[in-house]
Design goal:
The complex is a heterodimer.
Chain A lengths: L5 E2 L4 H27 L1 H31 L10 E12 L5 E10 L1 H24 L6 H19 L4 H19 L6 H32 L4 H4 L2 H8 L3 H5 L3 H16 L8 H4 L5 H9 L4 H9 L1 H6 L1 H22 L5 H21 L11 H32 L15 H15 L5 H15 L3 H26 L16 H8 L16 H16 L4 H7 L21 H22 L2 H8 L4 H6 L4 H50 L4 H18 L5
Parallel strand pairs in A: 1-2
Antiparallel strand pairs in A: 2-3
Helix pairs in contact in A: 1-2, 1-4, 2-3, 2-4, 3-4, 3-12, 3-17, 3-22, 4-5, 5-6, 6-10, 8-10, 10-13, 10-15, 12-17, 13-16, 13-17, 15-16, 15-20, 16-17, 16-19, 16-20, 17-18, 17-19, 17-22, 18-20, 18-22, 19-20, 19-24, 20-24
Chain B lengths: L3 H23 L6 H28 L14 E9 L4 E7 L1 H20 L7 H20 L3 H10 L1 H11 L4 H29 L7 H4 L6 H18 L8 H8 L2 H26 L1 H27 L4 H22 L2 H32 L10 H4 L1 H14 L6 H15 L3 H29 L14 H6 L26 H19 L2 H18 L2
Antiparallel strand pairs in B: 1-2
């Protein structure tokens, strides 16, 4: 089954699309093989320039797409076109058919949106990194890897074929591994990079099983074919169901969703994401906004019609999403590491996006609702800007106070005035306060959940929204208000165990050691630029409704005119957010912060929350005791003693037999004569010699 | 386009040239180790060029087997009576399977020669034996006469024994003996099967293409197939007959580890495909379920054992058990995707494991230890080798864009495409084993490359030149029993003679990983006759 999209290969669009993938890769090659070792500054500038050029190409491409495709939706079904496509390998099937793994460049509303977001954010992060990594000796290694990261993510979002998604999916995993473990001399960074890779790889293995299972059954890996109703039908009627014992449609989509589960760090695979903070802050900002974690959401959205056909899978998507949203928000309230608070907020927001996709199927049954899907994509879009900005701001703060512990900050309002305003915008956007970006996208999600009858999830999400506003105001007030931060204050080691690991090993290495607490221009400008979309991105809502909503022709467009159906929703959400912020102000802004933070580390529930529900400890127990002691160690023992021992045993038997034989050949003439005599006697008696 | 006669002549030179080179090297004066190394390098380069010329011609005009005939179409074929009394022929030729194996072998022989540049003791003997080993392998891959195949195959065993026993490290005599006894045992089974084929055929022929036309008795197939498959499987590192390989690899000098795992083992899986499965299809089908279980057992088993290894060479040896299990899994699928996946996995594993062994040897020659816990922070002191180690490691864990992924994907798809529950479940388990692969590879890479740099705290401070001088071939002389403290600051990164083989191997890995399509197409053609026989 070939791709059903209209091809635009050969034209300007095709060239632009090539350039968008080629330039970041070129940047990786140039900086990685040559420039990175020559000059750190030149490497940073070259990478930034190339990423800027990619951004220009992306804008041109979007414009092309706008005029060619969106202007003429009738001739492009699903508002989709292929810029180009090359077959990588074809897999013959026993039935006589075959499916292809190919590389292509898909243009549709969400891929173009992602390309714009990724290139925009990557460019700004590159600019920021020039300042941030200025005094780091390994910056020459940093920029090529960053380019590889952007390249992998771009390749992932433009995939027209599930094989391509997997291909770049793994590359994203590898480049994140390299970046999280960037300061490889720090054992904590090495451990975090390993954890991130192995946790996501664990999920990816199941993803790969799912990809192969679905490909073999459907006979295609093209998204256009997989999303067609025929694909779901052939999976549902697969004869394999008889011996698998489950519906292949459900099994296949669940396995594919496992990949998204791990990459988007849904509970219980969320453990790698907070640890990923060990990487340099620009990397965290890239991972959390546009490059890595949204890949899982994006994949689920990409296959939304197929998932929607598998009701059960979509329920799982919803449950994991809403649970992660609430769970992470609770943990975020008790973290003391700046970046970890933001990391848990990312988890929570990812949960939101995932939940929104899961809510796309009406609880009462019926056709899937593309309004929920649209809301999820809209939230990816708005979240990318303000989360990236919040992380970059956190980097400035860490740069200024040489610590990423929230207890070492305070009163930074006057020292970092521009960061202060930017963070304020980011916090308001994340908390979902009108008219900031997060307000619109969250409201869309809540709206879709209510409309489709997912009431429990709706209230859980509402509570998550309130918690989000609370922990962001805690973050904001503790960092910028209260008693003044005094530079050079040494920190005691009496911190909570949760923050000890990240805190003690010296984020003094986190960039410029000699810089005093002030804002470097190359670091502040990207933040200020990002503040603009953080405020206004919400007004792109109509664009999403106009173009993303009707993207999948196969699912019914029964989304009502979004935002209009529930007049009470916006006031309710706003009141919740504002009152949570007020609570945060009352607890952390007004009072003495020391007493509050001391009181946070109590026993009981608060301690469990501060220790992230001991999930990491649980995994450690499983890996050490079950994986290692109960499986790997016995197998290795068996291999050494039994399997290899069998060889030794066989050789010992042979050697024994040889020994017995050698007894006969002793070299003693007397023995030989004796044996000869015995032989002669035997021959004489039975051999017919007649004696 | 090379003409058939000329091609056959050139093809014979691929094994004759190394043998000739070995003969000429015998005439070198004993002290002239420099000359021997250069001459051996020249011979390896010449052979690679020769193979590449043939491969290019083959690539441009691949022979197409006649559909339905069940007979392989050979390029550069020649057939002379060698010993007419027993109807033994010197029948040579290549199809896409053997051609790709030839390229693999030529690349690894060259890389092994370069990686052995540091050998200092008995240089002449080392390179002579290496070239004889190469001759045996090239001869085996081009032979289409079972007797000739067997002779060339046996030719590889003696040099292997001597190379490990003389130039190895650790329990080298034991390892060499174990390896040889196991492989000889395999050879006995192979010989049994070959003689069975010879007499059972009714035409007293050793010719593979002739035997492929004959329909053997089912009862005969039922015992001859397992004998042949098992015999080749032992050489091909099949679980649980893999036990010769970890000890053998760990004790062998770098070039021999590369060669054993990279090329020699492939001779086993090649034999499984070309001889056992091709000639005895009816025995193959019922027996394949047994071998399927062994295959997937090896995949999982090897990965778990690799997890617990502290010695880098043992880790890579067990990772080979796991990866060779994938070759057998591909064969067990008995469809075109699985079979070509098996052949591609042979190629991919050959390049990857050779690269890893090569790097381990180079790292060892600097740190004088192969134990993971004793190393740390090498990235800072020897960045080139470290980055290459990470790349080779990622290739091993099946990173897309590298050869391992392209091959594994074919194996897995082939398994699923059978639609048979047993094969599908086995393939599913094999896919999940990539988790374990990731764990042991990252554990090793993070352990030795990352973390704080070491400095010798009262240990032996190594002279940088000595570290390079005692390079790859001389494993083990300093290592065992001694404290292996090294000072990261004095480590010297790879010189060009060390960089070239690593880069060449990584180039092959990435090239095969990015552009597998054409090779897969050629393999499909070559596998057609084998599949026709299997489905007859």
């Amino acid at each position: 089954m070939g791709n059903l999209q209209v091809s635009l290969a050969g034209g300007a669009t095709g060239h632009l699309a090539c350039g968008i993938l080629a330039l970041p890769f070129l940047s990786f090659l140039i900086n990685g093989l040559w420039l990175g070792r020559k000059s750190r500054t030149a490497s940073g500038l070259a990478a930034t320039f190339l990423m800027g050029a990619t951004l220009v190409l992306a804008v041109l491409l979007a414009w092309q797409y706008w005029t060619l495709v969106l202007g003429n939706p009738a001739s492009f079904p699903g508002r989709t076109a292929l810029a180009w496509e090359h077959t990588w390998m074809t897999f013959p099937l026993e039935s006589g058919g075959a499916f292809s793994a190919s590389f292509g460049f898909l243009l549709d509303p969400i891929s173009v949106m992602m390309v714009l977001v990724i290139t925009f954010i990557s460019f700004l992060v590159n600019v920021y990194s020039i300042g941030y990594m200025h005094d780091d000796k390994s910056a020459g290694r940093f920029f090529p890897t960053l380019s590889l990261f952007s390249f992998s993510m771009l390749g992932l979002v433009v995939a027209a074929n599930l094989a391509q998604t997997f291909f770049f999916w793994e590359l994203v995993g590898v480049s994140s591994y390299l970046l999280i473990g960037f300061w490889y001399h720090k054992p904590s960074a090495v451990a975090a990079s390993k954890k991130a890779f192995i946790v996501t790889r664990f999920a990816d293995a199941f993803f790969l099983v799912g990809v192969i299972l679905v490909a073999v059954q459907v006979g295609s890996l093209d998204f256009s074919a997989l999303n067609a109703p025929a694909a779901a039908e052939s999976l549902r009627n697969s004869p394999w169901a008889a011996w698998f014992g489950v519906n292949i449609l459900t099994l296949g989509t669940l396995l594919i969703y496992m990949g998204a589960w791990g990459k988007s760090a849904m509970f219980p695979f969320h453990v790698w994401l907070p640890d990923a903070m060990e990487g340099p802050t620009p990397v965290s900002s890239l991972i959390h906004s546009a490059t890595m974690v949204v890949a899982g959401i994006y994949l689920t959205a990409r296959l939304f019609p197929l998932f929607a056909a598998a009701e059960y899978t979509l329920r799982i998507v919803e449950v994991t999403g809403v649970f992660t949203a609430l769970f992470a928000a609770i943990i975020a309230c008790r973290q003391t590491d700046l970046k970890r608070i933001l990391a848990y907020s990312t988890l929570s927001q990812l949960g939101y996006m995932m939940f929104s996709l899961g809510a796309g199927l009406p609880a009462a049954g019926g056709a899937p609702d593309s309004a929920a899907f649209t809301a999820s994509m809209f939230h990816i879009f708005t979240h990318a800007f303000f989360k990236c900005m919040l992380f970059l701001s956190a980097g400035v703060i860490i740069h200024a106070v040489h610590s990423n512990d929230i207890r070492d900050t305070g009163g930074l309002r006057r020292i970092l005035p521009r960061t202060y305003w930017a963070t304020l915008v980011g916090c308001l956007a994340l908390a979902g306060v009108f008219p900031f970006a997060g307000f619109f996208s969250k409201e869309e999600i809540l709206h879709a959940a209510w409309e489709n009858g997912h009431y429990i999830a709706f209230f859980a999400a509402l509570a998550t929204g309130a918690l989000t506003a609370f922990y962001m105001s805690r973050y904001f007030f503790l960092v910028f208000h209260g008693p003044r931060f005094s530079a050079g204050r040494s920190h005691q080691d009496s911190h909570a165990p949760a923050s000890a690991s990240a805190h003690s090993d010296g984020h003094a290495a986190d960039g410029a050691a000699g810089q005093s607490a002030k804002e470097m221009p190359s670091m502040v400008w990207p933040i200020l630029i990002l503040a603009v979309p953080s405020v206004i991105a919400g007004f792109a809502k109509n664009f999403f409704i106009a173009h993303v909503l009707p993207m999948y022709a196969v699912i019914a467009e029964n989304g009502s005119e979004a935002g209009s159906g529930l007049p009470w929703l916006s006031p309710l959400a706003t009141v919740l957010a504002v009152s949570s912020i007020a609570l945060g102000w009352a607890w952390y802004g007004r009072k003495g912060r020391k007493s509050i933070l001391g009181a946070e580390q109590e026993t009981g529930l608060a301690k469990i929350v501060a220790n992230k529900f001991y999930i990491d400890e649980g995994y450690r127990f499983l890996v050490r005791n079950v994986g290692n002691r109960l499986v790997a160690a016995p197998i290795t023992w068996f291999e050494r003693t039994v399997v290899n021992g069998a060889f030794d045993a066989v050789t010992a038997v042979i050697r024994g037999a040889a020994w017995v034989q050698s007894m006969v050949q002793s070299g003693q003439v007397q023995a030989y004569i004796g044996i000869a005599l015995v032989g002669l006697l035997i021959l004489a008696r039975w051999g017919g010699l007649g004696l | 386009m090379i003409e058939n006669g000329v091609g056959a002549c050139l093809l014979s030179w691929t094994w004759f040239l190394p043998l000739l080179a070995a003969g000429v090297m015998m005439l070198f004066p004993a002290g002239n180790s420099r000359g021997v190394k250069r001459f051996s390098l020249g011979a390896s380069v010449a052979n690679l060029v020769l193979v590449l010329v043939l491969a290019t011609s083959f690539f441009m005009h691949p022979p197409v087997p006649e559909p339905g005939s069940g007979v392989s179409a050979l390029a550069f074929a020649a057939d002379f009576a060698w010993f007419p009394a027993l109807n033994i022929h010197y029948h040579i030729g290549v199809d896409a399977i053997s051609m790709s194996m030839m390229v693999l072998a030529a690349v690894i022989v060259l890389c092994g020669t370069m990686a052995s540049w540091g050998v200092e003791n008995r240089v002449k003997e080392f390179f002579i034996l290496l070239q004889i080993l190469a001759a045996g392998v090239f001869g085996s891959f081009i032979a289409f006469d079972l007797f000739a195949f067997f002779v060339f195959n046996e030719l590889t065993l003696i040099p292997t024994y001597l190379l490990i026993g003389m130039f190895g490290s650790g329990r080298k005599e034991f390892a060499a003996m174990k390896l040889n006894l196991m492989l000889m045992g395999g050879s006995a089974l192979i010989l049994l099967g070959i003689l069975g084929l010879y007499f059972e055929s009714g035409i007293r022929s050793f010719d593979i293409t002739e035997l492929a036309r004959i329909h053997f008795d089912k009862g005969f197939q039922m015992w001859a197939f397992p004998a042949l498959f098992l015999g080749f499987g032992i050489l091909g590192n099949m679980f649980p007959f893999h036990i010769w390989s970890p000890d053998g690899h760990a004790s062998a000098p770098t070039a021999i580890s590369m060669f054993l795992a990279g090329v020699h083992m492939k001779l086993g899986s090649y034999g499984c495909l070309r001889i056992a499965m091709y000639l005895l299809p009816e025995g193959c089908r019922p027996w394949m379920d047994v071998f399927l279980i062994l295959a997937v057992g090896g995949v999982v088993w090897g990965a778990f054992v690799a997890l617990k290894q502290k010695d880098l060479k043992y880790m890579n040896a067990y990772s080979s058990v796991s990866h060779c299990g994938l070759v057998f899994l591909g064969l067990a699928a008995l469809n075109v995707t699985g079979l070509r996946g098996a052949v591609m996995q042979m190629l991919a594993h050959g390049f990857i494991t050779a690269a890893v062994f090569c790097l381990i040897g180079m790292i060892y020659s600097r740190t004088h230890t192969r134990r993971i816990p004793e190393m740390s922070g090498l990235m800072a002191s020897i960045p080139f080798l470290s980055v290459c180690f990470v790349m080779a490691g990622f290739a091993g864990l099946g990173l897309p864009g590298m050869a391992g992924f392209a091959a594994e994907l074919n194996v897995f798809v082939g398994g699923f495409a059978t639609g048979r529950p047993l094969v599908v479940f086995a393939s599913g388990i094999a896919v999940l084993s990539i988790i374990l692969t990731a764990i042991y590879i990252l554990r090793a890479a993070n352990g030795i490359l990352h973390g704080p740099s070491r400095s010798s705290g009262g240990g032996i401070a190594l002279d940088a030149h000595a570290a390079i001088g005692s390079a790859a071939g001389q494993d083990g002389h300093a290592g065992h029993g001694e404290s292996s403290a090294f000072d990261s600051a004095t480590l010297v990164d790879a010189n060009w003679m060390e960089r070239l083989p690593v880069l060449l191997l990584l180039g092959c890995i990435i090239g095969l990983g990015l552009f597998p399509g054409r090779i897969a197409g050629l393999l499909d053609q070559a596998l057609q006759p084998i599949l026709e026989n299997l489905n007859r």
